[in-house]
Amino acid sequence: MSDHSLSPTWLASWASRVSEALKAMTDEFERRHGFPPGANEVRLADHADQAAAHMLAQAGIVPADLVTFYDNIGDVTWEDVGNGYFVDPASDVLLWCKQFGPVDVSAADKEAGGLVIGSNGGGLSYVVSPGRVIYRTRTASLDEPKLDRVADGLQQFLELLERSLTRFVANGEPGCL
User: Fold this and answer.
1) Cα separation of 152 and 163, whole Å?
2) Dihedral over Cα of 15, 21, 24, 25: its sign
3) Which of 28, 145, 161, 176 has the CA that lies 20 to 30 A from 123?
């Protein structure tokens, strides 16, 4: 597992890099595909996002990196990268947790409950464990989920998202997430 902490400086740099790549992709999108692009952005956090992040922190099962992420990034919406990639806003993560509770990740992780933080456009969810590991569900169902480990932490997950974007812009293949 990664011991690196996610920093606001790293997040700002990541958001800048992927935003440039998203702009290049969307500038060419309609010419290449014949229809306008959907929403493809990294939205920076506003005060409401930051307040929701602090409420998540109070829940006690949230890794510190996730709070740092939501203090800086409101959400990630990449509708046109492959089937799509989405990191939900903190308010949605909080609402989902209140309505349904933590996801049982105990079959894949020694930690008991994880939070759904996003999805891909194919119906699979991304779940973060209290130990910072990011999992992807194998099916759209979260009842007794089968999970695959995709990253040791949020920074590695964001780096994988960036690689998926870069690969998609270069050759139309969305990557492994």
Assistant:
1) 16
2) negative
3) 28
Beta strands in the chain (DSSP E): 40-44, 73-78, 85-87, 103-104, 113-120, 125-128, 134-137, 147-151
| Longest CA–CA separation in the chain, Å | 49
pLDDT in tens, 22-79: 999 999 899 988 999 999 999 999 999 999 999 988 877 788 999 999 999 999 999 9
Q: Any residues with CB less than 8 A from the CB of 81 and at least 6 apart, and which?
A: 25, 40, 164, 165, 168, 174
C-alpha–C-alpha distance, residues 175 and 177, integer Å: 6
- For the chain, the first-to-last Cα distance in angstroms comes to 18
For tokens 């105990």, the residue is 106
Buried b (16+ CB within 10 A) or exposed e, 103-114: bbbeebbebebb
pLDDT of 102 over the 60 cut: yes
Contact criterion met (CB below 8 Å) for 68 and 7: yes
Which tokens in the block code for residue 81? Answer: 């990268």
Nearest to 25 by CA among 175, 143, 170: 170
Residue that the structure tokens 């995709």 belong to: 150
